[in-house]
Each structure stands twice: as C-alpha cells, then as structure tokens.
Amino acid sequence: MHEEKAFPAIERFVRLALSQQEDDTTDLINFDPPQRLLSDQFLSHLAIDDRLRKHVTAYWSSETKTRLFLQYNELLDTELLDLIAIYTLPERYVSMHEIQQQLSQYHLLKIAMASSALSEILINKLASFVVLFADWRVVRIMQNVCRILEPAKSCKVFTDFILQDLKSPFNYIHCGPLASIETRRNLVWSLSVASVRNIWPLVNSLVGWVQTSDLWSSALEDTLIYVNWIICPTNDNRESRSFSDLKSWIQSSQGKGLFHNLASLWRKLFSDNAVILSLFVIAILNQLNIDQQIALIQKIYFSSVAEDDASM
Fold it and tell me: Can you tell which superkingdom this protein's organism belongs to (predicted)?
C-alpha cells in the first residue's frame, strides 16, 4: 500500500467501495454515513500517509474525492485540521487577502463549491472548530471560506441563515430538532463572527446613538441583544450580566462618547472578542479627529500589552 505504483489500484478499489449516490449518503447533523465498506485501518493510512494523500489530491477525480469525504467525513476532519494548521503557525502571519487567494485554489474548497452536500458539512465542521479552538486565526479561515462558498450558492445554510432581521439567527437555532440545537448554535455563532459586513452596521448604529439625544428604542435593544450574544453566547446568567454591562456602558456614555474608557474596559465588555472590538473602534474613529484617533489606538494597544505582561 505504501508503494506509489499501487496508488492507481487503490483509487479503483476506493471508487468501487463508495456509494454512487452523493445524496442520502450522509446525515448532515450527526455526520453518520449509513454504510462503511472501507476499513478503519485503510482510512487511517489514507489520512496519515503523506505520499498517498498528495496522490489523492493531485490525481483523483473531484467526484471520487467528494463521495469519499461525504461517506467518510473523518477524512474531512483531517483535511480541515491540516488547513487550520497552515494558518495558525505562531511564527507566520498571513493577510486576509493572501488567505482568500490561497483558499480559492485549495483543492477542498474547489470541490466543495461544486457540491452543496459537501459544502454544508464543511461549514458545519469548520464552525465546530471555530468554537473548539477559540482562536482568531481560525475565525479568519471561516471568514474567507464563507466568502468563497457564499457566492457559489453551493451551501444551503447561506439561504437558510440570512440576517433578514435580528430575530432570524435565534429562529434558525431554535426551529429544528432538539438533538441538533448545539450544532445550529455553533454554526450561527461562527457565521455571525465571520460575517463582519453584516455586524458592522449594527455596531455602528449603537455607536452613532451615543452621539445623539434620542431615547433608547426597541430596535437598539434588539441590536444589542444580538451583538451581546456574539460576545457572550452562554445562554445563562453570564450572558445576562454581559448584556447589562454593555447596555449600561453605552447608555451612560450618551453625549460623551465611548472612546474615553474603551481602552480600559474592552476586555471585560467584549470578553476579549477582538472582532467586536475592531468594529467598535472603526465606528468610534469616524467620530474623532486625528489626534483623538491616535490616542485611542495607543491606549488600546498599551493597555493590552500591560494586561498580557501581567498575566505572564
């Protein structure tokens, strides 16, 4: 099996062992294929043998690889973990533009764009890894995968979960089987964090209200509930406390601006969520002169460095 001359025979063997039907082969919630003809030992070799995997990537047809990932999606776990490892090396920073360019040519994304079933599982699994690792670099991978798959309309979740109003994310979570509610919660949270273009107008409306004398409205309340859920999606008293602290901070800053104490409070208010911090900072910077902008960035930077040093 380790001999390269055997690789074409392995491909023919795998093709015969795979179901010919892409649909109805996988439970999209539990990721359970109905029948397994390939042994665990063979799958282990396929996952860890670098030469064989490179051969699979380079020479196997998209149709064979798609059916393989659908019916044995523990191999999809391996592919996604390898992909995550590429962009989470501590000594390597990759820009968002570079990530998107590279991922658009990545073999797994190419075949997912042509298969709604595979893209659905890929997005769900990647969402679970975003929650598991709680790493901003994995969030950036999710952001770029969404940008690649959404225009292709290959993934049904992008039509099921559309931010039509501020209640639609919670409706999507709770309007389905109880057994899969955690999967839907992870998916919606990950997509929310990844969809900064959708969250930006919400944060901007909260920051903009501070500069007015308007009364607090039900629309602002709904906006803050959703933004707070992205910050603290615990579904318990911690989420309630976070909402209360965030609302108190915003309302008490009306007429004064949020930039005065953002540097000292953001870790507590945003639960270290750098995505939400960046959106608030961008919205606040629009209302400041250049000296105030520089001062705000410096305060946030030096307060973060001081806290990091204190935690060592």
Answer: Eukaryota
